[in-house]
């Protein structure tokens, strides 16, 4: 066995002599698991997460979404029970998306105090006053055309300022229902100023706004649109969401929302945009969130289900990458799985 003879000779040489001199040996701090923990720079905890919930009317409804195994459309009673489980896992923050029974051209259900989202906030808050409830503020789930505001039919795009007006109304509906934080996701210019003025004017000056401040027109939202039933009936969202190719504009978008009074900034999607997360983090002093979106979830889920990856390991590695890039908050469909992993 020539090979093992060589091996033994080399090992013997370095165990009897001093070894090579190197001032820096990075492996010194990697040998002991406790030392590895001591020098670990990035930590993921249950405090980092916001878990998305999709709410529709009815009772006892829990419908799994084909494109996102483990993610469900739920009726309010089921969501209330779900919050019980979330709390037992140490997860106290949720972001709610409403799926209304009736959609129309302006998304009236979102403007109604008895609409799905307002009712859900009230009911969940009543059952769980200790849950932190964030509401997604947009119109695409509520409009019959699936776009994020009022449509300019000629230009086939969303009217910015008209949408601002009804966005202010939607924010008041959320606030009155008891939302703890409002998260506008429509990428309308001037949205933060509009919402801040509307909320302050109605007596909600202490209600925080987490802006989807840098949101790209992304193919990674595909599975979400199945769950939220919000696929645009014509065209796409490229006239209001950002071009994935633009880095300077991505930073300008978030910094503009900071100047308008946003309390928390966000980059969405997360995984393909971690360079943007880091750049905005370095340019702001505000807390930052990432949205680990539906397509990112589905990619790992289906790879795991097909035994192509060690699912749990890759999920954790992904969460760490968000924190390392500068995220303080992670909105993720993996939150419950991560909480369970952290418990072990
Ligand atoms: C609504 C909204 C979307 C997502 C969050 N809020 C979809 C979209 O812009 O089409 C995507 C979330 C996900 O993919 O998980 N504006
Ligand atoms: Zn939208």
Which terms summarize this structure?
binds zinc ion; binds ligand PBG; 344 residues; elongated; two-stranded antiparallel sheet; ten-stranded mixed beta sheet; TIM Barrel; 12 helices; alpha/beta
Protein architecture, described:
The protein is an alpha/beta fold and 344 residues long. Helix content is 41%, strand content 16%. The protein is built from twelve helices and twelve strands. Strand 4 (93-99), helix 4 and strand 5 form a beta-alpha-beta unit. Helix 8 crosses helix 9. It is elongated and about 80 Å long. The two termini are 44 Å apart. The mean pLDDT is 96. Residues 138, 140, 148, 185-186 line the site of zinc ion.
Overall helicity? 40-55%
Secondary-structure element string:
HHEEEHEHEEEHEHEHHEHEHHEH
Oligomer: single chain
DSSP E strands, number: 12
Gap between N and C termini: 44 Å
CATH class: Alpha Beta
CATH superfamily: Aldolase class I
